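Take a record:
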Amino acid sequence: MRTGSSARLLFDADIRFMKGAYIDVKGRNQEGVFGCICLNLFEGQMDVENQVHHFAPGINRRGLFWTTPIPPESVRVIPDAGIASMDVTNLKLRDFYNVPNGLRGGQSAPVTVSLHVKWSGIKQRVRICDRVDTFDGQFIEHRPTLEWSAQQTGFTFVSDPAPWSRSTFGIIGYEHNGRYLKRVETGNGADWLLL
């Protein structure tokens, strides 16, 4: 039901994307681009009692959180410069209304979301190497900006422009793990080879 009224809402967001090679549930090598998207709207303070919308892909039957395929052309990465962007238009998600309901797979309604995220500005560079769990990554920390909108029956949301957004943490980088990281013996001990 459209009432014609408007109000300012607070939001928080957890936006990520993964682009590259992976191994699917059948053990096959694949390549793809996936977005991990969680957008939450609040009336008043940002807590679950005041949450009015929770936009996400949901949780699939294998337990994968808030992740959905996105078009390869929707992401751009220049890691050495510390720049990345994600532009998605008319992405079909679900509105679970609040996070606890979404975690339970409760009632939801369709929603269409468009968003623009930009990661830029280098705060620091970090390398993380876990030799036990075969993980190696090089990361750049910075603060991203986000501008987004959502539409569903009876409701439309449009965020403030991206320069007005505030973020607490952002990171881009390369990582290799599992089958894509091989341990090799060198003259100075074990080292890692990125495949």
Q: What stands out?
A: The first helix runs from residue 99 to 103.
